[in-house]
Amino acid sequence: MKLTGLTAVVALCAGAAFAEPIAPGDVQYSEYGAVEASLSGAAGDPENGAAIMVNRGKGNCVACHAVTALSDAPFHGEVGPTLDGVGGYRSAEELRGIVANAKMTFEGSVMPAFYKTSGFIRPGDGYTGKAAKEEDLTPILTAQEVEDVVAFLMTLQDG
Amino acid sequence: VVIAGGADDDTMVINGEIEMVTKTAAPEHMDNVSEIMSGWHFRSDETQALQLDDFDNPGMIFVDQAIDAWNTVEGSAEKACASCHEGPESMEGVRAVYPKWNESAGEVRTLAMQINDCRTNQMGAEPYKYDSVPMASMEALISVQSRGMPVNVAIDGPVAETWEQGKELYYTRTGQLELSCASCHEENYGNYIRADHLSQGQINGFPVYRLKNAKLNTAHGRFKGCVRDTRAETYSPGSPEFVALELYVASRGNGLSVEAPSVRN
């Protein structure tokens, strides 16, 4: 039974590394804005997380935050606090919530939500200045990319 | 969170004689800011220096070009600006009070709208494109006649409704990044956002010569760029929304000197 065999293999993979990611609209935030479980179902890759943090089209976190460990990337911003040591005083659950939608933790924060797809005013098509083509936008980071960033933030232990 | 000392303490005197007010008490209508400051204070010393002498200010080349345009006959009425307004000095004081209410048209007019009204209705000429270099140059020529005078835009009476609309736009968080003008220019002036030192986003210096694109830039052009950077659908230069926003932003600079053409990076 070829078909069943294939389904079984797919199911097995999903159970292991490739579980269905939690859709942006389905993320459960705690009262203080934390998110319990991995959004992708997998562990994060801190190295890729570091790359996302300095990538202008992705996280671009250094536009607003100084991070000593990323000092090779130029021009760190000061709109947000330095992230040095943040992995020491915040849990992975809190960091996941902050990266996915910081407004759940800090009311009215200027920090953008990186895993949110609807509820925007005049959403654009990326940085073109034109109207968005889809009703629901693509989140700025994928579920796995959020996990990668969180994994990197957890490595920032001394501040 | 505004970090004190974000703006420098330099003083601006143009050509060794025009003393400029670049910091002053905020107008009463502003809620969250006590002192207003020209964007000049947030630029590097080298960039600042370019604005201190007209021989160094690249924006003055465009002013010279606009003097030619001022005297050039165009359109079906065979008139130039000079036919009706004499020399550009007749425009002294005009920049300081724009945008303002035009009674006969029953609308709030920006300087750009007034220039195009004269071109189309008085001269029978083609309008300038709203945020084009010829428009910015003509605005700069008119602005330079008011250089050093305090911005004094009216916000009440017939413009009140438009002003409220502009204020609403200023505080609306747009785009996928959900940022408003206030997120950057009220809550974070003085802070660095990547390579840029955030100013209060004042428009007393517009049109502005930018080193980045080596031309004069209009306020609406700048608004468009800032809205685009929130990953939003922008408004168009000359749109009713940007006219309202210009009135509101201009009023946040009431008391600062007219600086145009200023120089920025």
Biggest interface goes to:
A-B, 29 and 28 residues
**Low-confidence stretches of chain B at least 5 residues in length (pLDDT < 50)?**
1-5
- The strand order across the widest sheet of chain B is 10-9-11
The number of helices of chain A is 5
Number of E strands of chain B: 11
In oligomeric terms, what are we looking at?
heterodimer
Question: H/E series of chain A, N to C?
Answer: HHHHH
- What's the helix-strand series of chain B? EEEEHHHEEHHHHEEEEHHE
CATH classification, class level of the domain at 33-116 and 136-159 in chain A: Mainly Alpha
How far the N terminus sits from the C terminus of chain B, by CA atoms, comes to: 24 Å
* CATH H level, superfamily name of the domain at 33-116 and 136-159 in chain A: Cytochrome c-like domain
- Number of helix segments of chain B? 9
Low-confidence stretches of chain A: 1-16
| Structural category of chain B | alpha+beta
Radius of gyration of chain A: 17 Å
Domain Cytochrome c (chain A): 44-157
Pfam families (chain A): Cytochrom_C
Keywords (chain A): Heme, Iron, Metal-binding, Signal
GO molecular function (chain A): electron transfer activity; heme binding; metal ion binding
